[in-house]
Design a protein that fits this description.
The complex is a heterodimer of chains A (about 350) and B (about 260). Chain A has about 350 residues and is an alpha/beta fold. Chain A is about 40% helix and about 20% strand. In chain B, strands 2-1-3-4-8-7-9 form a seven-stranded mixed β-sheet, sandwiched between helices. In chain B, strands 5-6 form a two-stranded antiparallel sheet. In chain B, α1 crosses α7 and α3 packs across α4. The chains are: A alpha/beta (about 350), B alpha/beta (about 260).
Chain lengths: ~350, ~260
């Protein structure tokens, strides 16, 4: 199929349908609303379910219900709505139900604004709901990746029986780019644990309750084993001109694209810059960063936030190298020149 | 084997032993005299009577009936506090052939889940909702419910509920009856055998509506909570009959056949 020009938000929906998802429950919020708009068209057209819920709380619980019956299901929202969904994420993870949620981040806290930010890193990557659980998180840097990672998210959700979040931001959601959509896949059969309303699955139970201490601890240890398995197998990151780099720039999503320009300009000025762009924010590319810390001089983390992912970078680097942080907030994106000036001032002037 | 057939056996769609319980697997976790046991039995008899055990998916709430899945040999999904109608909505839409029951108490449905029930009803979801109203939070130890009667003392209304301080008890049937979509809304009670027989017929009817595709069906059951009310079971049943029905009028509020 030829490439199509698509908005990031629309691309997520088309890719979900192609991945065999036939159920969407959501609530409108800027800058994610086009996902619901597109889902209202493409899901029914594919014979699936679309429903606008009364709230994000209801939407994520509808996701829980659909996932319990063994169908691929998704939702989408932005910061304030994701906050309301956190209870649901906890139940989904506890009951081991697969689903995909796209978070098109906006400015916060509170209502903030509707411009691009990356301030949801903590609530999404660390798990904003209660209890011992994780969500797998994929961060696209383009409309193409919005499509690819949404499709990938369904496979990861099934593999790990866990919610997977595609963590985009307002710029990725709103921009238009040419996209090669994945080939449509058939709707997969219901997994054996699902409650389908048929005799064969009558004895199945979906629950997050484990009353006895040993039972709950056993359940949590099995969740932990699952997360360790994901940490072994699912870490993804993009390296860019990193082989001989002395300074490693680290940024995800739209920031990664700005940092590629910074690397190019820096090298033009004779600075040996390279980029590591985490793609999976959980599991985080800790080992990659630790290996880079053995030879690079310093790290510069750039985020559209007050400094959230930088904590994970510092944990990975374990104090072996300086980790500097440049954050922009409120919807402002840093220019390549601004980042380059920061690198020259904070890193090379101290070297 | 005895040569006689039992005339009063446990409903077929109850598990023979409640193996999901940690102990005392021959009995429920409900207190002696609790209304949930009666509602469970009536619901199980209705499922048996309609021959829908294999198709049925029961959504268990949070509250005393959180463990409804211990007992019903049907597909079971346990959910977050108040969200059962949202979960049931998606279950039914993804599995239209299934018979979906949302079983909820008064705190679950009328307080924290008030948005979910209102909108599921307003959409006319093809589900059956059973609302057990005993005017109290039982599982957490006797706090005020949205349906607690005026004057009733609870741990969080120790001087008795007042309209000025805590508001009036919510009449859920009347509220839902203001919506156009619901097909069936009725309030029944467990105050005596006559009322229980009526409740049996109404619960069966609310399930039958779903089998026939009639639409959203809602049954509120006024039920006793002897333990937390601090009454003997007989006294508690009398309270349902004489006090609760005074605040919550029994009767049918909607009956639109499919």
């Amino acid at each position: 199929m030829a490439k199509q020009l698509a908005k990031g938000n629309e691309a997520a929906v088309k890719a979900a349908v192609a991945a065999g998802c036939r159920a969407f429950y959501g609530y409108p919020i800027t800058p994610a609303s086009e996902i619901a708009d597109a889902a209202a068209v493409y899901f029914p057209a594919a014979g699936g379910v679309f429903l606008q819920a009364e709230s994000e709380v209801a939407a994520i619980n509808m996701v829980y219900g659909a996932a319990a019956t063994g169908v691929r299901v998704m939702s989408a929202s932005s910061g304030p709505g994701i906050s309301l969904m956190q209870e649901g994420f906890s139940y989904l993870a506890g009951a081991e139900l697969p689903c995909v949620v796209v978070d098109v981040m906006r400015g916060g806290p509170g209502l903030g604004n509707i411009l691009p930010e990356q301030g949801d890193y903590h609530q999404v990557v660390k798990g904003g709901g209660h209890g011992n659980y994780r969500t797998l998180v994929l961060a696209p840097d383009s409309v193409q990746e919005m499509a690819d990672f949404t499709a990938l998210a369904f496979d990861l959700a099934d593999e790990y029986r866990n919610p997977v979040v595609v963590l985009a931001d307002g710029s990725i959601g709103q921009m238009m780019e040419p996209v090669q959509f994945p080939a449509p896949r058939p709707v997969r059969a219901a997994p054996p644990w699902a409650v389908t309303g048929e005799r064969a699955t009558r004895h199945n139970l979906i629950t997050s309750i484990h009353l006895e201490a040993e039972d709950l601890e056993g359940h949590l240890r099995s969740l932990e084993a699952k997360y360790r398995r994901a940490e072994q197998r699912e870490v993804r990151a993009e390296s860019w001109r990193i082989e001989d780099a002395e300074i490693i720039l680290v940024g995800y999503g739209i920031v990664g694209r700005i940092l590629k320009a910074v690397v190019g300009q820096g090298r033009h000025h004779g600075l040996a810059l390279g980029l590591l762009r985490p793609i999976t924010l959980y599991p985080f590319p800790k080992a990659r960063l630790r290996a880079l810390a053995a030879r690079a001089q310093a790290f510069v983390v750039v985020e559209l936030s007050n400094g959230q992912m930088v904590e994970d970078v510092r944990l990975a680097v374990e104090g072996r190298r300086p980790v500097e942080f440049l954050g922009r907030m409120g919807g402002s994106l840093p220019s390549a020149e601004e980042v380059l000036a920061f690198v020259e001032e904070e890193v090379f002037s101290h070297a | 084997m005895p040569e006689y057939a039992p005339v009063h056996a446990k409903p077929h769609c109850f598990y023979e032993r409640y193996e999901r319980k940690a102990e005392l697997q021959h009995q429920t976790h409900y207190c002696p005299g609790c209304g949930h046991g009666i509602v469970h039995k009536l619901l199980a008899q209705a499922i048996d009577g309609l021959g829908i055990q294999d198709r049925t998916i029961l959504v268990s709430p949070v509250g005393c009936s959180v463990f409804a899945y211990y007992y019903f040999d049907v597909g079971n999904i346990q959910v977050a506090h108040g969200r059962a109608p949202a979960v049931a909505t998606a279950v039914k839409r993804s599995r239209p052939e299934s018979i979906v029951i949302s079983y909820q108490g008064d705190g679950d449905l009328a307080a924290i889940g008030s948005a979910e029930i209102l909108h599921a009803a307003n959409r006319g979801e093809l589900i059956t909702v059973i609302f057990v109203n005993n005017a109290i939070y039982g599982m957490t130890g006797g706090q005020m419910a949205p349906t607690t009667l005026l004057g009733m003392k609870t741990t969080t209304s120790p001087q008795g509920r007042t309209a000025a301080g805590e508001g009036f008890p919510i009449h859920v049937c009347e509220l839902l009856a203001s919506l156009e979509a619901p097909a069936f809304i009725e309030r029944v009670a467990l105050g005596n055998n006559q009322q229980i027989m009526r409740a049996a017929r109404v619960l069966r009817r609310a399930l039958e509506n779903q089998v026939k595709g009639a639409g959203f069906s809602f049954v509120e059951v006024l039920a006793q909570c002897p333990t937390v009310w601090g009454m003997q079971p007989v006294e508690a049943q009398k309270f349902v009959r004489e006090k609760m029905t005074g605040t919550f009028a029994l009767g049918n509020f909607r009956d639109r056949r499919g």
